[in-house]
Each structure stands twice: as C-alpha cells, then as structure tokens.
Amino acid sequence: xxxxxxxxxxxxxxDSPAQLVNKAIAEGLTVLxxxxxxxxxxxxxxxxTLRGDLSLALGAEISCLTNDGISVHxxxxxxxxxxxxxxxxxxxxxDGRIPRALKIIELLNAxxxxxxxxDVESVKPAGATLGRPHIADALVKNGVVSSRxxxxxxxxxxxxxxxxxxxxxxxxxxxxxxxxxGGVAVIAHPFASLRGKVLSAADFLPLKIAGLNGIEVNHRxxxxxxxSALADIARELDLVITGASDYHGTGxxxxxxxxxxxxxxxxxxxxxxxxxxxxxx
Length: 281
Description:
Elements: E1 2-3, H1 17-26, E2 31-34, H2 43-49, E3 55-65, E4 71-77, H3 84-110, H4 117-123, H5 132-141, H6 148-156, H7 171-180, E5 184-188, H8 204-210, E6 214-218, H9 224-236, E7 240-243, H10 263-271, E8 279-280
Parallel strand pairs: 1-2, 2-3, 5-6, 6-7
Antiparallel strand pairs: 3-4, 3-8, 4-5
Helix pairs in contact: 1-2, 4-5, 5-6
C-alpha cells in the first residue's frame, strides 16, 4: 500500500515523524511519503525510525497561489533536500504564514471572537510550520468551537470573512523549483471544492507544460464525480494518477492509507525524478 501525502507535527499534524513511521509500518504500508507543509524538518527523524519493508518518499507540500488568487497545494516528492533554492523558497513561504496568521487573528477579534497569537503559539508544537489548523486548535482551547473540523467549517474556510491569502509561489513556479531540485510534482486535491474556489479543467495544461508529473485524484475531499473528472484530465495529459490519505493524526478524520496509489503509477512517478531517492531500511 502506497500513501503519498501525510503530515506530522513538523507542520499541522499531531504525530511526530517517528510516530508516523511506526503507524505506517503497523498499517502495512510499503511506501510512505512525508509531505509536511513548506518544510523538510521531519525528514531526518523519519529516516532514523525507518525499518522493515517500509520505504520513504521524502517531500513537502508547498503552498501556492495562482495569479487569480486561488489557493493550490503542490506536493514535491523525491527532490534533493540540500537544494539551496528549494530550501529558500520553502523558508520564504513559511515566513509568509506569520503575518497571515496575525491578520486572521485580527479579523476574528474584530468579529467578536477572542483569540491571540499567544493562544496559537501555546498549541503549536515547537518548530512546526504555522498554519490555520493551529489557529483552529487555539479556538478549540478557548472554547469557541469543539474541534478543528468545526473551526474550518464555521470560521476558517477559504470563503470565510476571516480568510486571508498569503504570499506564496505560483503553482508553475513551485513545479519549476521541484523539478530543478530533481524531484517530481503532484498537485494535491485540486478539485476539493468544499475548501473554496478550485482550478478548472483548462488550468491543467499550463501546469503540464511547466513540468507537472501527476494529479492526486483519489482523496477524501473529492467526490466520485470529481475523481472521475480528474482521472480523465490525467489520462488526457498523460499524467500520473495518485491517491493518498492526507493524514494529519488526530487533527483530521483522515485515516492513514485510506486512499492509495497503484504500484504501476508509483513506479512511473519515481522514475521521473532525476535520481532514485526512495529511502529504504
């Protein structure tokens, strides 16, 4: 079983990298991709915990914005973690999350919802990439909502009056950087309409031209019709079809391995990186 999209407490998940690896082994996964938001800080710990038949496909989920202001997440897998320009892009994207969080908090306060950046920092694991899920956790702690899911449904979704975009690379720029660093690029949950405005079918050709390798088709936030439409786009553009859990530990309902990638699709995706960077025990 191959799961190509997961998170740890190095970003907005709740498991440490070691705990994630241990759970993947217990679940019988054969390939696990570690894709924390805009960071590679969990790579070393995951590698130290690796054992048995599990292989690691190290990567990151890069926050992007189209020129039209649509939020897009790009999975970069199997890239060179020492690539300086890639690390600079990730750092710049992380830095942009701080003023964004402060603005969201300001808007929430103006709406009569009490929360502070100190509240957010108190629930965020040390060193983790700051994100809206940590604001959600602070809202839970303050008794405003009962869960992360409720926070996003009621207050933090992309169409909310409290939503704030942040500085981020375009999807094309992120793809170009991933490929320059020797990796492969897979667009994550591109038709997840419940999260807000999404791409159209016509938007995928420019991404293919930019170097996109695959589309995450099978994801819990895609309906059956959305999965079918994305699979058609992938076949038309000769892109790899992936599936993944987008696992966040207890931060989301998603279960590890609940969607997965076919072995043949994974082998093709891996072959499109400039080097074989899968980590094995």
